Amino acid sequence: MEILFDNSLRNNTNLCCGANEDEFHYTGMNIERDYGEAEYHDLAKTTDGGICPKCNQSALAISRGIEVGNIFQLGDKYTKAMNMNYLDENGALNNPIMGCYGIGVGRLAASICQAHHDDFGPIWPLSVAPWQVQICCVRADVTESKALADDLYEKFRKIDIEVIYDDRIISAGVMFSDADLLGIPIRVIVSPRNLKDECCEVVFRDKSYSEKIHITKVIETVSSLLKR
Fold first, then answer.
1. Segments making up each domain of the chain, as ranges
2. What are the φ/ψ torsions at residue 49 (nearest 5 degrees)?
3. Which residue among 62, 177, 219, 225 is the one 20 to 30 A from 39 at the CA level?
4. Is 90 exceeded by the pLDDT of residue 178?
């Protein structure tokens, strides 16, 4: 029988090893004494660019990951506490072995942000975005801008488009920076400058789309973009 040990075990003594029977172990193992013909190889530690032993090609890549869930083996601790029993094939009562799993919502959100972001904040995919559309009313102190933004907000809500509305009287730069941090997929910008041309600006959070749309076509255009 060919016996292989990892390089990290070389020259170690008084080890503990399995005894080929559940819950039993041997102690005091000495590799050189007990397995004199054993070979040592780099078995346990993986490295980026590791070589496949079959094709001799660099086949192993290491990358960062995010833990989004856990699985726990609980044994019979809780089934005993709850007096949960079952009859086995011999008619004897036993406690079932129990396990559980959990998926962290916060961890899922973190993993999405890790995969979908830029230097300015998250870019939520439409399927998980907290809102589909954000209305940015630049110069909400101007009656015409505020009236149009209010009207668009109500129309979006009536057709069940999830919308958030920023009508704070702040600079456009601060408003757009905050919008980037929210990461809503579609942004509708209402401003006095655009209203001079009877338009609103519709942009994607990922900067892949930007277009001025006539105020009468905004709802139709955004609805089409969401479906597409």
1. 1-63, 69-105, 133-227
2. 85, 20
3. 62
4. yes
Nearest residue to 105 (alpha-carbon basis) of 113, 94, 93, 95: 113
Exposure letters 44-64 (e unless 16+ CB within 10 A, then b)? eeeeeeeeeeeeeeeeeeeee
Place of tokens 């006539």: 214
Q: Where are the alpha helices (DSSP H) in 26-100?
A: 31-34, 77-81
Each residue's pLDDT tens digit, 186-218:
999 999 999 999 999 999 999 999 999 999 999
Handedness of CA 100, 103, 104, 105 (dihedral sign): negative
What is the token pair recorded at 81?
């506490």
pTM metric for this prediction: 0.64
Task: List the CATH code of the domain at 133-227.
Answer: 3.40.50.800
What one-character DSSP code corresponds to residue 8?
Answer: G
b/e code 182-211 from CB counts within 10 Å (16+ = b): bbbbbbbbbbeebbeeebbbbbebeeeeee
